Amino acid sequence: MSANQTTRKLTDLAKTIRSKNAGVDKITFDIIFSDHDNYKLVKNSGSLTRETICTLYGIEDKRISDFVEFDPAFAIKFTIYRERPSGSAGDPDIFGAQQYAPLLGLDIAIPGN
User: Fold this and answer.
1) Is residue 110 a part of any domain in this protein?
2) Residues of 2-33 as b/e, b for ≥16 C-beta within 10 angstroms?
3) Which of 27, 71, 74, 89 could pair with 33 as two cysteines, CB 3.0-4.6 Å apart?
4) What is the pLDDT of residues 69-92, one digit of tens each?
5) What three-state secondary structure class fits 44?
6) Domain range enclosing 18
């Protein structure tokens, strides 16, 4: 971060941050913004990337099946492969609904004036 930048939490900019089951072997994540300005700010900040996801979740890039910035919906979506099938022995979250938490503290770089 340069001297001219500040940060804001992703939770301050996004309307919805959620995760959910995407089949037996995947969990999908949605980050949805209520307006174009906040969406564009996060998209262009370089703060939310495949690499960020790998770091936040402690996974290798090959576990990310999709990473999409969907302009018409002001949304960023990504999907990761589960470590084990949904509902199998040792699966900590059958619905995948509790996996978004690491995103809540993500700092987004805001350019200074």
Assistant:
1) no
2) eeeeeebebeebbeebebebbeeebbbbbbbb
3) 74
4) 999 999 999 999 998 888 888 888
5) helix
6) 12-104
| Residues 31, 12: Cα–Cα separation, whole Å | 12
Query: Which residues 6+ apart lie within 8 Å of 61 measured at CB?
Result: 50, 51, 54
Indicate whether 7 belongs to any domain. no
Q: Answer whether residue 82 is part of any domain.
A: yes
> For 3-40, what is each residue's pLDDT tens digit?
567 999 999 999 999 999 999 999 999 999 999 999 99
Tokens in use for 93?
A: 């979250």
DSSP 88: S
Q: How far is CA 6 from the centre of its chain?
A: 20
Answer for the pair 110, 10: CB distance below 8 angstroms, yes or no. no
Both tokens of 58, joined, read 């402690």
Query: Which residues are CB-neighbours of 111 under 8 A, at least 6 positions away?
Result: 4, 5
